[in-house]
Design goal:
mainly beta, two-stranded antiparallel sheet, 1 helix
Length: 71
């Protein structure tokens, strides 16, 4: 399954992840569906400003993570 969403998470909010206070990030897809994604899947997309961009999450039929792509 494919889920597309826009992410705008400034670096000062990412501090909660690095402190160990959160491990999941809630996103709202373009179709209105809300998902919780393990924050570790966003590591490769973190910049000094935070995480910004349009993403596509791909899951298998059971809903397990397959990949996360930034457009």
């Amino acid at each position: 399954m494919k889920f597309e969403f826009h992410m705008a998470l400034p670096s000062h909010e990412l501090i909660y992840y690095y402190q160990g206070n959160i491990n999941q990030i809630e996103v709202t897809c373009f179709n209105g569906q809300r998902l919780w994604i393990n924050a570790r899947h966003f590591r490769q997309f973190v910049s000094i400003e935070g995480i910004y961009g349009r993403f596509q999450l791909i899951t298998n039929e059971q809903g397990s993570f397959v990949s996360l792509i930034k457009f």
